[in-house]
Amino acid sequence: MEQVAKKQNKFLKILGWVFSIIFFAVCAVIIFFNLTHEYHTVSGDSMYPTLNGTTETDGVFVSKIKGYGRGDILVVNKGEKDAYGQDIFVVKRLIAIGGDKITIREVDGYFRIILIYNGETEETILNEPYLEDYSNNSSLKAKFEKMIQQKGYILDNGFLQIPDGQIFYLGDNRLTSNDSSTYGYKEQNLVVGKVDYIAYGNTNIYWQVIKQAFGW
Questions:
Q1: SS (H, E, C) the chain
Q2: What pLDDT does residue 7 have?
Q3: pLDDT single digits (tens) 56-107
Q4: What contacts 86, CB < 8 A, 6 or more positions away?
Q5: Beta carbons of 95 and 70 less than 8 angstroms apart
């Protein structure tokens, strides 16, 4: 009986050590994750249907250490303050970076974004699978042309060139989005980071991160 009790105590000690290691490992992962990521809630419908900021507000975890590129969803400091003196952040999709040239032109009956990437000479019609309908770009074209006139930007053969150190971003919902098509390009150093994970409905946020991280 004494030997059985010793074996049970040894087993319980090992089990305790295992759970302790797992607990501290999980805590370390959570701490590291919170140091490298920043959480923001989505406001409004400018990124609909990709993100919802109206009926069931989504949230996003932004990586502060990963790089980002054209087509990524970013959180950007708008460079403005709200009525309470707090920074205003926007969630938008990066379309063009410094050195790129951009215009909007009718292609096959729809208005499409045309890009000349930095260092290239050939035009590229931007493929946007995240849009529900390219017909919404008719609203984008009108806003884009009005913005260029108001800002006094000089075009290069019909293209707006994005200066070095600046970015041009848009919302996926072209009908309502307030973005670079309405107030122009923004400084690249205002980028908080790339959206790494989405918490749909802003609930069970860490569980959703785990599922997305492991592809569940």
A1: CHHHHHHHHHHHHHHHHHHHHHHHHHHHHHHHHHHHEEEEECCECCCCCCCCECCCCCEEEEECCCCCCCCCEEEEEEEEECCCCCEEEEEEEEEEECCCEEEEEEECCEEEEEEECCCCCCCEECCCCCCCCHHHHHHHHHHHHHHHHHHCCCCECCEEECCCCEEEEECCCCCCCCCHHHHCCEEHHHEEEEEEEEEHHHCCHHHHHHHHHHCC
A2: 63
A3: 899 999 998 889 999 999 999 998 888 899 999 999 999 999 999 999 999 9
A4: none
A5: yes
Q: Is the pTM of this model over 0.85?
A: yes
Structure-block tokens of residue 59: 């949230």
